[in-house]
Amino acid sequence: MKIIDPRYYQIAILGTGLLYGEWFLDFSLKPLSVMSILMCAQITQYFFSKVYRLAEFDPKSALISSLSLCLLLRTDSLLLAACAAILAISSKFIIRWRGKHIFNPTNFALVVMLLTSSVWVSPGQWGATLFFLFASASLALLVLTRSNSMDITLAFIACYAGVLFSRAYWLGDPFSISVHNMQNGGFFTVCFLYDFGS
Hints:
Blueprint: H1 6-24, H2 31-51, H3 60-72, E1 73-75, H4 78-94, E2 96-97, E3 100-101, H5 105-113, E4 119-121, H6 130-147, H7 150-171, H8 175-181, H9 185-191
Helix pairs in contact: 1-3, 1-6, 2-3, 2-4, 3-4, 3-5, 4-5, 6-9, 7-8
């Protein structure tokens, strides 16, 4: 039996999340911004495919990164949206160690772009309904089990939860705040942003 590339599951889940967010959660996404991110990611992927003389152009990895940026990145600047996509895909090819990219492209671009004053990430946009959390967790689990990368995500969740609860303990805050910070679709989206391609 032929194994299906796990990136197809990621693309389906991220695309569905984007549509769900726009239609039911009123993300108020700007179509030009979305198109800019999607197109710039593919053009950058194609450019580096030629520069590095890869056997073929594979759009899946760039599509995953760009869909993830559309879900998480918010800016009023079309130029900054395009820059985020270019930065994400470029980082895969430029910042490497032993043939593998070091950073998750989407997360790298988000962190760098957050250094500007015109870009933000809005995790609260997802809401915290039980149905959406359950669906997000189930879909994330599907992707992770199909790709055999559950260890990476579990390590991320454990570290993130450890930091949240340690911070709450340090500040004397109730742990319910930390639990609330983990109860949104944005958190689950980040959990399965791991990039299986190059």
